[in-house]
Write a structure and sequence with these properties.
mainly alpha
Amino acid sequence: MSGLNPQSRRKSVKALYFLAFASVAVSGCATSAEPRYGRLDKDARTCSRFGARYGTAAYSDCMLAQQRRRDLKQLESLERTRLTSQIAKDGQIMAERARQQRCDKNPNRRECGR
């Protein structure tokens, strides 16, 4: 981004923020759109394919493992979103510091607004 003018940099930073926001929105919709009974039915079929029969301890353990797997997947998605947001924030901070350094060296620059 060093070859971009200030307006292009601002657009790039805004695009990063939009990407972070969109990631949060999409990850939230993915889990809430799937009805609970559909997840339970899918888990039950998975456990049955593994050979666990309904009402047994193995079936209960399998259902809990499926829920843990889904919870971990959601946590990983949230962590990726958090990291994306942090990267965007860090990029904006770095761009502002670089702009400030350029303005300190040459206050007559158009981007400095002085």
